[in-house]
Amino acid sequence: MPTDHRNVSLTGYLATFAALVVLALFSLVLSFVGLGAWAMPIALVVAGIKALLVALVFMHLVEQPSANSFVALSALALVVVFIGLVVADVDTRPSKSVSGGVGRDSRR
Amino acid sequence: MPAPRTAEHFADLATQQRAARLGMWTFLASEVLLFAGLFALYGAYRVRYRDAFAEAVRHNTLWFGTTNTFVLLTSSLTVALAVRAIRADRCGSALVFVGLTIVLGLGFLGIKGFEYADHIEHGLLPARFFSSDVITGPGAIIFYTIYWIATGLHGVHVTAGLCVLGWLATRIAHDRVDATNPVALELGAMYWHLVDMIWLFLWPLLYLTR
Amino acid sequence: MIEVSPVPSFLAAKTGPRAWLLTRDHKRIGLMFLFATVAFLFLGGAFAMLLRTELVRPERDLFDATMYNRLFTMHGVVMVFLFMIPSIPAGFGNFVLPIMIGARDVAFPRLNLASFYIYLIGAFVTLGSLVGGGVDTGWTFYTPYSSTSPTAVAPTAIGIFIIGISSIITGINFITTVHTMRAKGMRWHDMPLFVWSIYATSIIQVLATPVLGLTLVLVGLDHVLGIGLFDPRVGGDPVLYQHLFWFYSHPAVYIMILPAMGVISEIVCTFAHRNPASYRAIAYSSLGIAFVGFLTWGHHLFVSGMSETDAAIFGVLSMFVAVFSAIKVFTWTGTLYRASIRLGTPLGYLFAFLFLFVFGGMTGVAVATQSLDVPWHDTYFVVAHFHFIMVGGTTTAFLAAWHYWFPKMFGRMYDERVGLLTAALVFGGFFMTFFPQFLLGNAGMPRRYYSYPDQYQALHVLSTGGSWALGLAMLLAFGQLVVAWRKGPRAPANPWHSRSFEWSTSSPPPEHNFVGPFVVRRGAYDYDLTQEEADARSTDR
Description:
The complex is a heterotrimer of chains A (about 110), B (about 210) and C (about 550). Chain A folds into 2 domains: about 1-65; about 65-95. Chain A is about 65% helix and about 0% strand. Chain A has helices spanning about 10-30, 40-60, 65-90. Chain B is mainly α and about 210 residues long. Chain B has one domain: Four Helix Bundle (Hemerythrin (Met), subunit A). Helices cover about 80% and strands about 0% of the residues of chain B. Chain B contains 6 helices and no strands. In chain B, helix 3 (about 60-85) runs antiparallel to helix 6. The longest helix of chain B has about 35 residues, at about 15-50. Chain B is elongated and about 60 Å long. By secondary structure, chain C is an all-alpha fold. Chain C has a single domain (about 20-540), classed as Cytochrome c oxidase-like, subunit I domain (Cytochrome C Oxidase, Chain A), CATH 1.20.210.10. Chain C has helices spanning about 15-20, 25-55, 65-100, 110-130, 145-150, 155-180, 195-225, 240-270, 280-295, 310-335, 345-365, 370-375, 380-410, 415-440, 455-485, 530-535; strands at about 520, 540. The longest helix of chain C has about 35 residues, at about 65-100. Chains in contact: A-B, A-C, B-C. The interface between A and B is large, with 51 and 56 residues.
């Protein structure tokens, strides 16, 4: 049986699952607490941790060649940049109306 | 159980399997980017319609969404255990775990179906089909437009994943996927995990951030 | 060195339509991509010729403004998606890359064949929408017009979506191939530079194309169902569409230029008969372009209503890409400097490329400067800029590649005098077409306009004349290759005396690229070694 990897143990899988459930419950509980502007980033961070656990353990990223991690990380980094710059656009416009950037008062 | 044949263009079986996994990760990366645009739209519109979005989330069906989250998390466990079983040459167990995953996946879709029916009943539909008078305004409409498109696209991927898992189940049953040739199941499981991971981000954005 | 292969060439092995239509041989798939993309090049070119001819006079000559809008849209769609994106990567990349790394095929040959058919289906769906009158939104499909235009937006969007799937598959295949199928002894830094450029291109294809896919779905849904995500009348933001569209479409231009740069790298080293001035500079700058290219899309949105903060960020980031391109240009020039240069048609195209790419690239830096872009945006200046890169750059490199790898692919040589002559005609026709457009744009002529004030006519006439010359030159360039294919003299395995690994096998190569397993003990550019020493260190026996 070809094994070019160390196998995750059954305990490993179950512990990861338990962590995922706990984190999900944690998010759920937090959602009832008024966190204001922190609600979104915290929710995303928790989601990110869960995704990381799924990727590392369930998808065996820990055992696999680093090229695979590099692929996953590249995708993630790009998504962050994409969402970041798009949101930054809307967030930094002078008025939050449909469009209000360059040329909003064009009397040239 | 027939031994897997190394395709003639590969140096050896180990390389072939390594290539399969790398190829799959690359494909999954492309799938992540597919959803990224929707998340970007969500983010941009959330900034513009902060209050309306929060209110729309409050009116969303939290318990349907939350149940589905636990359903998918469990299904990730079962499919991971399926891979573990196949690697240990316990094909019967693997088949059971794949079956469980499929059942959970169908459960997800079923719950989603009930949820959509509930939305329809309350007029929480996308774009010009929106007809709720409990929440109104462009922000609410845009939220539900993104909600339907994002969960719809995700649902398409769940369905595709179920088809893949179903096909894998038949392959295991016919001894074409086993401990000497586990890669197909690994790849199918990877796809399923991706489907779960996308939901892990959709859930807070659509249901929790109130 | 294999002069005459003891096994049949890939062209002779397994003949008949089924052997081609169901092939898994990357070389045959590559050729099929090449023929298809060339056909679409001429189709897109025909649209362009019609447009340019109409523009000879401000009045209506051949057709009305609505038809004009459809023509420039279909010109853009066909050229970008049916020709430019697949041409060098899926065409030459498929043919040459596996041989360059000493592999017998790509990692996923059946997927490779699927990518060809998916491309073809997408192309026919897109062209089918032509029957429905085509689209008049411009290839950029900007909202809100694309949501309300009475033209065949949805089928065209579907067709492009399908082609995008093919592009992603190609990328996955090449990335995996480069990681897992290099010949024994070949490290990353032994690979030919073309491989690095295709690898970088593949990263972009995999990560950027899905965003286009989503965007096209949203456009289609909006057109058919009116979902209003980008409709200001219901609180939507059309600028967000532009973000989503250009997030793909800017990296897409690097999909179009990186493989061309890879071709140039190969031709420079071969024709200078020299190692590259810095292998790492060219290899890493390819990755640099791919990476930074993802961060610059907002420079297409400078006058759209995007925030000043974002405009500033994108403006600065856009400057960095030019650095990597400049590194390449200087390295190529440094490789050529004082080298013992061999003459030939690929070299002719190479010089055309260098001149036109630098010219176009500098104007790219200019329009990436926000303050300068404000008057130039949506004028012929931008049109000239990107045609200098895409035609003067990529298409020139495409032609260079056709001549450079022609002997390898078909085992025949073309006529050098005819080749050089047609290269000169292509260059001349191109310059006459597009240089006046910089002047037109700077003088205020808007792009995509059917008519114009009389003072612009002289430059329009010049540009149209150039387009006829260019069209004729392109026909001649490919025509003489067809003649060479039928009647050219037999080519040896390595007519250019190149050290790159595809020349270590016969011309054309055998079905599995090499006779035995390919083993290397040198880099791809060991011009310090004699030909015999080099051959001894890259063997397939």
